[in-house]
Each structure stands twice: as C-alpha cells, then as structure tokens.
Amino acid sequence: MSVPDAHLSDQRPATARVGFHATVDVRWSDMDVYQHINHARMVTLLEEARIPWLLVDGRPTANLRHGAVIADLHVKYRGQLRHEDGPLDVFMWIDAVRAVDFVVGYEVRARGASLDTPAAVVASTQIAAFDIDAQRLRRLTPTEREFLVSWQRV
Fold first, then answer.
1. For residue range 49-62, what is the model confidence (pLDDT) as tens digits?
2. What phi and psi, each to the nearest 5 degrees, are found at residue 110?
3. What distance in Å separates the CA atoms of residue 14 and residue 20, rounded to the nearest whole number?
4. Quick check: bond before 87 cis, omega within 30?
5. What value does the mean pLDDT take over residues 22-30?
6. For the chain, which has fewer Cβ within 10 Å, the N-terminal or C-terminal residue?
7. Cα gap 122→124, rounded to integer Å
C-alpha cells in the first residue's frame, strides 16, 4: 500500500487523513459471466467496507445499525475488477453531513494499488438516520455529527 496505515487511521487528526481504509474479500460468487465483479455484489462489498468504520461497537455512529436507510446510491465504473484483484482496497470519507443524513464517498482499487492509480470504482451512498419505532427519519445526534464531520474531506 502506498499510504502508511497511520495516515488512514482515525487516530490521526482529521487534517492528516486520506480516509478510512478497509479491505474486502472478493468471493467467486461475486463474479458475473464476463468475470467482472457483478454490480449488485459491488454494492454489497461497499456495504461490507463501511461496517467496520461506522457501525461497530465503540463508534459514535454504531447506533445507526439499528436505524438507517440508504436514500441514494451512485456507482461509477472506471475500470475492471476481477476475483484475482482481491481483497479490494476501499477508501471512504464523508462528503456531506446534514440534519438527518450524510453522504459517504468511496474509491475502490485492486489490492495494493497506489492511491495515485485511478480508482476502478467511484461511488457515493446517502445514508439517513431512521427511527424504526416511529417509522420516520430522525436527526443525527451531536455525537454522530461530530464523528462524521471529522471524516469530511476538506
């Protein structure tokens, strides 16, 4: 990897981060008939990448696993990714934070590809906080907002 792990860590100040880095394994079943990663599977791989960043115990955003909805999703393919490219390197950051939602940006590259290499996949996901019991959107808490804002690219 061309970027030191510490540079991607949430232990670094926000101004010194590139983004959160996760690796995701590519399964044989993720491939389509042309031996590329299938679109629906790519969406699942993006989800798997953001879970350890946003939804694990100890994160201020962990409560979102009990109530969040995907409001919008964009995936742009700029190159091919195949089974042998895995595990994939996924870099994530926050593009925007609003009252009830936020936007996650993604760059996906083959294992070990330099950050100077154009990403094979560029994506964004708008995620809205949701109150399951009331069946309506809810405002992000100040703690959730603060954590999300700390990952915004400036």
1. 999 999 999 999 99
2. -65, 155
3. 11
4. yes
5. 88
6. C
7. 7
